[in-house]
């Protein structure tokens, strides 16, 4: 097979790029080839601060990196409002695309991105790291087990963290021209993805935003929530907030089983992660205790979840580059579904909390 | 002080009365004096099946038990539709009242009950056992700690269990003439109480039922949910269902802390119970793990929670009977708040999911 290492470029020196650059270094089938920023100085400082080896190129513009023919794929951690421009350009330059979430400001923009990815034959994957943790596969096993879990009936997700005053004033995620979806795009994204995950990626029929969302002066969402309804009677609730203590919950209640996880986007510890699974839970005869009780499942991993992500992305890119493979459609498909639900929540907020039909 | 043992009578031989009669036997300040059923034969069988000692009287009618002058207090596990009649009569006969939940079919009925309790100087307490578990006091300590928890911002509760076909056909909780509130009254009650508990018993301003409640042919609720809104921006969601795997969750997210408990109405085990508490939770610098992580708090108890309940009820009754005390108003007050929220959920379901203002 020869060379199967995928050469990745990073455009944008966001904080999260520190973690992903480490993941690229740790992934056995990827290597960091270049980093590009709006200024050469910024790119150099980022490379130095993160201890990049000397062979990593630094570029003073995103275009220059995209024009480097050695770059197979780019990781794009730019503010959401810039995604459509740079993701489209990257695809046009035949660069495979690992794009930060939320993937776009709305589905129309995202469709532009995936159209370009499709017509240029490049792999698209969003940067939802927890999807790639081996625990997630174990949870999916449980959720798809008709005997242990049955059919999902109720799903709940919550992602909150307590942003400090500087974040609430200056972070790109509270700026209407950079990340207009605010908390909904940043952490509501994970709630929506988790709900879709637990619903086997079946889109809800209707979405209704909760009332009393918290917006900043510029109209960016700092806290909100929504209820999702499926035609088969399934219901999901989520809440996301920049204004409460760090909380990352997913609960899925099925006809026969229940799943609980309290750190679904980022495990409490890097090398092991667990979840609780109850099946046909019940009380004893006199209703004094549970019998059986839920059990705890722990999954160990040598690699952090973001390394699993980069490895899977690079594997898919390698299959295209070296084995004439086709891009895997699963990833853009679930990105689009996530974005469709985000759009509906935003529309419901802007429409006096009316029910919004999801149209695929 | 002399005799301080409270003599309790039970009217109605419901399943749950088995557990409460055991609790009365175990409570150091209470004794089971009598049991009454609609037939003497049924009362005798219940006494025999539960191994009541020979001094426990059996009555073939509820009236006869209420007319026994030795009975200080009655425990009433009758179907909800019968509460107002028998609770009022008990209060008029000066019997202190331990009443099963939901306390009434609606707040108007409940007001009739507490009016009679007040004018007759008897103690009222509903039978929400978990309120009396020592773990609940520990959780209340955490939730009221401004440093560790801050102010509540989001609360989530879920109570589901998987009812078998016989229950769904024959149980009093699915009969419109007996327990018209169905799952909302039976287990939604606990969700609402838990939410109020986490909100320091502050009533929400508005309640909106979730769409797609499941009703049986007679219109009794088998599954439903609601969102509660407070004027200060707090939001709560709950879901209750007879149609999913046993799940009993309370999550409270505050500005500084988060509480999780997965068995809040009935601990997994009888002698120990735990909850998880996170405070100022955060990630490490590179966002690879939580630092600090939430901690687990375990509370041991020699007595099951229902014994704590009977002991507290009997203590309050004893204070009235032997020490010229006044009835403790906390208990009827929080019962009434719970009922007000249940009423609003039902009204919202019956009003096409319109927001319902809570009027105290």
UniProtKB/TrEMBL annotation, chains A, B:
This is Uncharacterized protein. It comes from Bauhinia variegata.
